[in-house]
Design goal:
single chain, 591 residues, alpha/beta, Rossmann fold, seven-stranded mixed sheet, five-stranded parallel sheet, 17 strands, binds thiamine diphosphate, binds 1-deoxy-D-xylulose-5-phosphate, binds magnesium ion, metal-binding, transferase, thiamine biosynthesis, Transketolase_BS
Length: 591
C-alpha cells in the first residue's frame, strides 16, 4: 500500500484524499509519532489521542488563514507533522531542533505559542475579535483544549467573555478524562455525566454560557468529526464541540497506563515497553525527596497539609495523597487557587506545603503577594523544576522565581544545595517561621543516595562556607554550587588555594555577616545561579556591595537576558555559560 503520510507536506495535500485514505493517514500518523517519540522521547499520550481530530481540522479548515490554537500544545505533534515539519520531527525538543510546543517563530501554522495550560480560548477569542474589528468575517478561530485545562480559571474567564460576543470562535473540548494525572473536580463529574447521556438532568453548562454546543461525539470517528466540523464551519458566533477520546490511543501500553505514557521516556515502539536504566543505585529525584519527606514530617505534625495544582505525579505529592488523602490535595490546574487555598489554611493554623513548579507559580504571582506575603502567612512553597528544566524549553524553565520572589517583603527564599538541605529546610519550616518561605529545587536526580539522614535545624539567613581562599570568591546559590565545586577542584593546588567558595543558601534574607567577611577579604567576587541574572541572586549581591560601598570586581553569572530554548540541561547550561567548563574558565580569567 502506498504511504500517504510521505505525500503530505502541507494541509492542502489532505484536501483531495478520500475518507478511506484519511483513515489510512491516521494510522500512519500514529505509527510515525510512536516511532519517533520511542527513541527521541517527548509527550506521547496526548498527541496519539488527537490524531483523527488533527486530520479533520486541517482537512476542513483553511489553516494557516484560519487560526488553530492547541492548549498546552503537548498534543500538537500530529499538527507539526502535517504542517511541513515531518522530515525534521526527529529533532523535536532537541537543541536547535523544533520545539515540543507550538511556536509562532517556527511555523505560520502555529497560530499562538503555548506550553502553560488554559490560554487557548482567550488567545483564539482575541484573534476572533481582532478579525471582526479588521472587517474579516470569514476567518475561523479554533481552540483545542483538554478536560483538565478547561477547568482552570483562565479558561473559565475566556468562556465567560466569549459567550457575550458574536466572535467567530470554535472551542473543541478534547475530553479524555485525564490530565497528566486523573482530572479532578466538579466539572469533571459534569462531563462524565454528559458522556453517559445523563446531561438532561442538569442544564448544559456551555449552552448556559451562550455557546452553540454539540457533542459529546467519538473523537476517533473520523467521518463523524469531519461531518460535525463541516457543519460548525457555517455556524456563526461562539461554538463548542465536545469530543471524547482516549489518551494514548493506538498503543496498548499507553492506553492502559496513561499517567506514565503522558511522557514515557524511551520505549520499544512495537511493544510499548519502557526502556529504563538498569542502574538501581542512582540518587532519588529531588521531587521524591520532597514526596517522602513530607509524609515523614506529616506523621509527626498533624497540622501539615500538602497541595498540588494538577501535578501529584510530577511533584511526588502522590505518595502523601495515597497515604493521607484527607491531608493532601490535588486541586487541578489552578495555581492561583492553590496559593490562596494554602493562605486560607495557614490563616487558620494549618501548615500548608504548597508544591508548584517554578514556572507555573508565575501564574499565581498576585496571590503570593496579596494573599500570602502581605498577611505574613507561613505558607511553605516548594518550587520544583527551578532552574533550566531541559527539553520542555523556554515555556517551562524555572529561571525567574528568584527575581520575582526576592522583591516581595516578608518572603524567605531558600535554595538547597542537595537533598539533605531540602529535607532539613522542610523540617525547619514546619516547626514555624512566622513568615512565608519559598524553597526552590531542580528537576531530576539529587546529589547522593545518602539522603535519609536525621533532621537538623537550619538557621534562617545563614550561608555555608565551602572553602576559603584569598583572591577570588565564588558565591553560589542552590545546586549549581555542586558544579562550582567540580570546577574549583579542577585547578591545581596553588591556584585552588586562591579561590573561596560560599554556598549562600538564602537569597533572602542574605547572610550579611558572611558577606561583610567575604567583601573584606577578596578582590574578585563571582556569583553563580541557575536563574535569570536580571534581578536575581547576583543582583542581590550587587545591591549589598552598593549599599555598603564595597568596590571589588564583581562578575554575575546565570541565565542571560534571553529565553533559553530546548535541549538537555547539560547542553543548556553550556549555552548559558554556567556549565563546569565555563565556570572553570571564568574563575581562571580572574586568577
Ligand atoms: C499552568 C499549567 N499548569 C500545569 C501544567 C502541567 N500540565 C501539562 S499538561 C497537563 C494536563 C493537561 O490535561 P488536559 O488539558 O486534559 O490535556 P491532555 O493531556 O489530556 O490532552 C498539565 C497539568 C501546565 N502545562 N500549565
Ligand atoms: C506539558 C507539560 O507542561 C508537562 O507535561 C511538563 O512537560 C511536565 O514536566 P516534567 O517532565 O518536568 O514533569
Ligand atoms: Mg485530558
Amino acid at each position: 500500500m502506498k504511504n500517504i503520510l510521505n505525500t503530505i507536506n502541507a494541509p492542502k495535500d489532505l484536501k483531495n484524499l478520500s475518507i478511506d485514505e484519511l483513515q489510512q493517514l491516521a494510522h500512519e500518523l500514529r505509527a510515525f509519532i510512536i516511532n519517533i517519540v520511542a527513541t527521541k522521547e517527548g509527550h506521547l499520550g496526548a498527541s496519539l489521542g488527537v490524531v483523527e481530530l488533527t486530520i479533520a481540522i486541517h482537512y476542513i479548515f483553511n489553516t494557516p488563514k484560519d487560526k488553530l490554537i492547541w492548549d498546552v500544545g503537548h498534543q500538537a505533534y500530529g499538527h507539526k507533522i502535517l504542517t511541513g515539519r515531518r522530515t525534521i520531527f526527529d529533532t523535536n525538543r532537541r537543541l536547535n531542533g523544533i520545539s515540543g510546543f507550538p511556536n509562532i517563530f517556527e511555523s505560520e501554522y502555529d497560530a499562538f505559542g503555548t506550553g502553560h495550560s488554559s490560554t487557548s480560548i482567550s488567545a483564539a477569542l482575541g484573534m476572533a475579535m481582532a478579525a471582526q474589528i479588521q472587517g474579516d468575517t470569514k476567518q475561523q478561530h479554533i481552540a483545542v483544549i483538554g478536560d483538565a485545562s478547561i477547568a482552570s480559571g483562565m479558561a473559565f474567564e475566556a468562556l465567560n467573555h466569549a459567550g457575550v460576543t458574536n466572535a467567530n470562535l470554535l472551542v473543541i473540548l478534547n475530553d479524555n478524562a485525564i490530565g497528566i494525572d486523573p482530572s479532578i473536580g466538579a466539572l469533571k463529574d459534569y462531563l462524565t455525566h454528559a458522556k453517559n447521556g445523563k446531561e438532561l438532568n442538569r442544564d448544559n453548562i456551555f449552552e448556559a454560557l451562550n455557546f452553540d454546543y454539540s457533542g459529546p461525539i467519538d473523537g476517533h470517528d473520523l467521518p463523524k468529526l469531519i461531518h460535525e466540523l463541516k457543519r460548525l464551519q457555517n455556524v456563526e458566533g461562539p461554538k463548542f464541540l465536545h469530543i471524547v477520546t482516549t489518551k494514548g490511543k493506538g498503543l496498548k501500553k499507553a492506553e492502559e497506563d496513561q499517567i506514565t505514557y503522558h511522557a514515557p521516556g524511551k520505549f520499544n515502539a512495537k511493544t510499548g515497553d519502557r526502556i529504563t536504566s538498569t542502574n538501581n543505585i542512582t540518587p532519588p529525584k529531588y521531587q521524591d525527596v520532597f514526596g517522602y519527606t513530607i509524609i515523614e514530617l506529616a506523621k509527626k505534625n498533624p497540622k501539615i497539609v500538602g497541595i498540588t495544582p494538577a501535578m501529584p505525579t510530577g511533584s511526588s505529592l502522590k505518595y502523601m495523597i495515597a497515604e493521607m488523602p484527607e491531608r493532601a490535595f490535588d486541586v487541578g490546574i489552578a495555581e492561583q487557587h492553590a496559593v490562596t487555598l494554602a493562605a486560607g489554611m495557614a490563616k487558620q493554623g494549618l501548615i500548608p506545603f504548597c508544591n508548584i513548579y517554578s514556572t507555573f507559580l508565575q501564574r499565581a504571582y498576585d496571590q503570593v503577594i496579596h494573599d500570602v506575603a502581605i498577611q505574613k502567612l507561613p505558607v511553605i512553597f516548594c518550587l520544583d523544576r527551578a532552574g533550566l528544566v531541559g527539553n520542555d524549553g523556554a515555556t517551562h524553565h524555572g529561571v525567574f522565581d528568584i527575581a520575582y520572589l526576592r522583591c516581595i517583603p516578608n518572603m524567605i527564599l531558600y535554595a538547597p544545595m542537595n537533598e539533605v538541605d531540602l529535607r532539613n529546610i522542610m523540617y525547619t519550616a514546619q516547626k514555624g517561621l512566622n513568615a512565608p518561605i519559598a524553597i526552590r529545587y531542580p528537576r531530576g536526580l539529587s546529589e547522593s543516595i545518602h539522603w535519609k539522614k536525621p533532621f537538623k535545624n537550619i538557621s534562617i539567613g545563614k550561608g555555608r562556607v565551602i572553602k576559603e581562599g584569598n583572591s577570588t570568591a565564588i558565591l553560589s546559590i542552590g545546586t549549581i554550587g555542586n558544579i562550582v565545586n567540580f570546577a574549583v577542584n579542577k585547578f591545581d593546588e596553588k591556584e585552588r588555594d586562591k579561590v573561596g567558595h560560599y554556598n549562600m543558601q538564602f537569597i533572602k534574607p542574605l547572610d550579611n555577616k558572611l558577606l561583610h567577611e567575604i567583601f573584606s577579604n577578596y578582590n574578585t567576587i563571582i556569583t553563580y545561579e541557575d536563574g535569570s541574572v536580571q534581578g536575581g541572586f547576583g543582583s542581590a549581591i550587587l545591591e549589598f556591595a552598593a549599599k555598603h560601598e564595597y568596590h571589588p570586581k564583581i562578575i554575575i553569572k546565570g541565565v542571560p537576558d534571553n529565553f533559553i530554548e530546548h535541549g538537555n540541561t547539560k547542553e543548556l547550561r553550556a549555552v548559558a555559560n554556567i556549565d563546569e567548563k565555563s565556570i572553570f574558565n571564568t574563575i581562571l580569567s580572574t586568577l
